[in-house]
Amino acid sequence: MNEIMLINMLGEIEPSLLQDDYMEKDMKRGFLSFLYRLFKKTASELEYNPLHLTISQDLNSVPEHFNCTEEIEIQEIHSDDSNKKSEETNTIGTFESLDDADDKNVLSISIFKKNIRTLIKIISGIVAAFILIIGIVIILLKRHKSGTKLYEKKIQIIY
Amino acid sequence: MKDEAIVSLIFEKNELGLLKLADKYEKLLIHIAAGILGSRSRDIEECVNDTYLKLWNHIERYDMDKASLKTYLKVIIRNTAINKLRDLSRREERELPDDISDIAKYYIDQSQSVEGQIFSKENIKQLNKVISSLGEKDKELVIRKYFYLQSSKEIAKATKMTVTAVDSRISRLRNKMKQEFAKEKESCYCMQKGAIYE
Question: Is residue B73 a contact partner of residue B51, using CB atoms and an 8 Å limit?
Answer without folding.
Answer: yes
